[in-house]
């Protein structure tokens, strides 16, 4: 028996704290602005949507935040998640590179999303909230929140982007199995949804529109809060449990990664794995390159602008400085629904501006090719989202084959593709259409950004 | 932190041998007979379909069989599988019972099936075979074999029962992602399939028909063998890795189960968990009750007869003494496709006749009710097959609530239901139809059993 295939941690080794990268950055990110006054928002502005504990986590500059015991108890259903050494993929590629993947598909929703859904449901239940509303793209987040709500006795109502709702009926069934309720978005249940439908009754929807709908319902009901599955600081904070575990797992085999690769939509999976490693890098304890991979059809980091924009389509959210394609941008309905978001997390955008990681964009076809290659070697069918990172990893590993470099590569395998098999069928039947965004599309998309004084 | 949620084994603790219950039974099972001569079959009779190593395992009376290193290397992609303590389900039920589940859904196919698919592909590749054919019901076995073939460079061709092929299109996509080819059964590619279609062009198919098709193709091509996902001795042997791990995991927490509950179709998942525990029971080292749960629509153990019958519909296989509903029996197209088989494993049938376990039958609706209850508490959506065992477990745990008994219950959670969510949707929308088999249906089904002299 050679090196282990799975590097496991015991439940007693589950991290007890989330890590807050804000504490270690050389400068803070630009403030979040009120959409009306365009002044920095305070905790009170967020109170109609979020409980006080999450608002506190959104703005804290403490380096570590304790994970409540009630959250740890639910985490233990699947955490610590395994770190895999991809022995069989390396062999199939004939590469001297050592490829590792941190696998979040073992969670109830099959992705990294429950890492934040569980604490969000917990803090809301603690605050006496009865119902959470949210949006979902591919459906991973909606599933995660429905599961989390079932654990803490909350109702859960989900607006799912219609493109995904139609492509992935199993996601609705899974959300309902966990006790949640699902609406396709745009829906006629909200002002925001009706406005979109009035312009285009066949709208495929977008995360931005679905957010508007969920926020509108939460803002209008006293016992109801809103939950977001990515983008915000507290979401990224909760996801750092991934990277903390990975650090402990690498320590067990006496290695450190030379390169970390993750896919980015809103940025939470990527940040969750990368931030604890960036702490090590910033402190000089570790020399590691970090790479974000986004879809060519929705390339906020590589083709968007860094500017203040709304998080949603209707302009109801605070203004955040981020890499954005414009809040009106509706990306083509690609299969990686979790990456179809017009903006990038403001914190991650700031970290990108600080030069702490690189970014690249890839087309669907090369991503699914990597996904199939990975599945046949490793036995896990990846979700379409992490195939973006896998495509980059495989290219890097083949580069190492040329140079003979034994690079240690770590990738975030943030979910399985069991509910995305229709996409694999489309790829295998050569029916995938690729949508690469042209420069003029981007220019058009960002033309309507809100103007910020000063 | 209380008792652990997951009891894990290290890869170094992966069992190195499969266990053969035949070595410890007070009497051997009745011989398998040649369909023509009705004399006991010898190894040569099986050679057109199976490689010599598997034939040897089919008839061996050795207590332990070494697991080849090449098989262990693939097993390590997901094994040892976790043993879970269902803390949250216990709490939801308010029971003093301690419920454990051995979870096989972490495998590449999402079920226990790769435990035997991998060694079967390995031994066939070792023997120079180029292609394997097989049948599949729910699709779990076809997926497992396609994955296993991808690991050893074999082609894989799968006949899938049409009822499941139509209900579960994602399974086809998953088999194809692993590189396999899928045909709905009955198909017009074989004599056996054409004969069924001639009688009923809308036939929903059955495992018996699909076996006939796959066997026919394998028997007619020199470089092609056939692989079976349940029923046979060597399949049950390979699955004992489940029970051996569970024994080691219980030893870690200093407990032994009072009751083991598993679902039965062909019997391999149930036998895989139960046989190592039956060894302990037969030796007097452990006192444990064992219970098989089958679907009310296909109740071979509880309503079938114990008689010689064919394993397939066309009557091409050897005759095996087993609990059977008759090889012509086509069960209603329930969602637990993996349990839709007319017969029970001959070895397991013999063990049942020896009084070593009990059996009961349950309807779909109560099984899905248990599945949803389990999912909301534990976060795992179970495949429809193991919900049969869960329904029995939950009933038992509620009985313990009445009596105050702290019974230790172990159930085989043999797979996840990610590709069965249409069935959950049907249950949640109250669209499930239950099919309980009447006595006269059974009498009719077994009327045409072959006559055996003596």
Kindly summarize this structure in a few lines:
2 copies of one chain form a homodimer. Chain A has 454 residues and is an alpha/beta fold.
How would you describe this protein?
The structure is a homodimer of 454-residue chains. Chain A has a domain of 264 residues: Rossmann fold, CATH 3.40.50. The longest helix of chain A has 21 residues. With 454 residues, chain A is an alpha/beta fold. A seven-stranded mixed β-sheet of chain A has the order 1-4-5-15-10-11-14, sandwiched between helices. The first copy, chain A, is 41% helix and 16% strand.
Question: What oligomeric state do these chains adopt?
Answer: homodimer
Largest interface comes to: A-B, 50 and 50 residues
Please tell me the CATH architecture of the domain at 6-13 and 68-110 and 234-446 in chain A by its name.
Answer: 3-Layer(aba) Sandwich
Quick one: biggest sheet of chain A?
Answer: 7 strands, mixed
Flag low-confidence runs of chain A: none
Radius of gyration of chain A: 20 Å
Overall pLDDT confidence of chain A: 94
* CATH fold title of the domain at 6-13 and 68-110 and 234-446 in chain A: Rossmann fold
Q: Which geometry of chain A do the CA atoms define? A: globular
Terminus-to-terminus distance of chain A: 63 Å
**SS content category of chain A:** alpha/beta
Q: Name the strands of the widest sheet of chain A in spatial order.
A: 1-4-5-15-10-11-14
Q: What fraction, in percent, of the residue positions of chain A are helical?
A: 40-55%
CATH class of the domain at 6-13 and 68-110 and 234-446 in chain A: Alpha Beta
Q: How many runs of DSSP E, i.e. beta strands of chain A?
A: 15
Proportion of beta-strand residues of chain A: 15-25%
């Amino acid at each position: 028996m050679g090196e282990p295939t799975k590097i496991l941690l015991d439940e007693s080794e589950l991290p007890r704290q989330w890590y807050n990268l804000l504490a270690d950055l050389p400068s803070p990110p630009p403030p979040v602005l009120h959409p009306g006054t365009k002044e920095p928002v305070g905790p009170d502005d967020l109170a109609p949507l979020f409980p006080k504990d999450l608002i506190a986590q959104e703005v804290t500059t403490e380096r570590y935040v304790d994970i409540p015991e009630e959250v740890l108890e639910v985490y233990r259903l699947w955490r610590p998640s395994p770190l895999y050494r991809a022995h069989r993929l390396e062999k199939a590629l004939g590469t001297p590179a050592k490829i590792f993947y941190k696998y979040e598909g073992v969670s109830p929703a099959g992705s990294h999303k429950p890492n934040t859904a569980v604490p969000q449901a917990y803090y809301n239940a603690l605050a006496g909230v009865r119902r959470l509303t949210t949006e979902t793209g591919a459906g991973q987040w909606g599933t995660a929140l429905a599961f989390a709500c079932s654990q803490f006795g909350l109702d859960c109502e989900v607006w799912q982007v219609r493109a995904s709702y139609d492509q992935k009926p199993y996601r609705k069934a899974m959300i309902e199995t966990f006790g949640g309720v699902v609406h396709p978005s745009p829906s006629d249940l909200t002002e925001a949804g009706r406005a979109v439908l009035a312009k285009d009754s066949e709208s495929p929807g977008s995360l931005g529109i679905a957010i508007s709908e969920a926020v509108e319902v939460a803002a209008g009901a006293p016992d109801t809060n809103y939950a977001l599955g990515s983008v915000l600081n507290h979401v990224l904070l909760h996801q750092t449990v991934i990277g903390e575990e990975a650090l402990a797992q690498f320590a067990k085999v006496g290695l450190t990664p030379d390169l970390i690769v993750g896919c980015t939509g809103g940025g939470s999976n990527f940040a969750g794995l990368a931030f604890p490693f960036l702490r090590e890098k910033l402190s000089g304890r570790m020399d590691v390159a970090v790479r974000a991979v986004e879809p060519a059809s929705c390339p906020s980091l590589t083709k968007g602008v860094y500017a203040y924009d709304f998080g949603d389509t209707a302009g109801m959210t605070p203004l955040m400085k981020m890499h954005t394609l414009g809040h009106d941008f509706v990306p083509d309905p690609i299969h990686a629904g979790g990456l179809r978001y017009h903006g990038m997390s403001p914190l991650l955008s700031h970290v990108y501006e600080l030069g702490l990681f690189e970014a690249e964009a890839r087309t669907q076809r090369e991503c699914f090719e990597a996904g199939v290659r990975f599945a046949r070697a490793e036995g896990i069918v990846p979700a379409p989202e992490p195939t973006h990172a896998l495509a980059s990893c495989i290219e890097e590993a083949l580069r190492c084959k040329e140079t003979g470099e034994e690079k240690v590569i770590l990738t975030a395998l943030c979910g399985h593709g069991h509910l995305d098999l229709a996409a694999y069928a489309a790829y295998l039947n050569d029916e995938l259409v690729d949508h690469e965004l042209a420069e003029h599309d981007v220019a058009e998309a960002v033309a309507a950004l809100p103007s910020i004084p000063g």
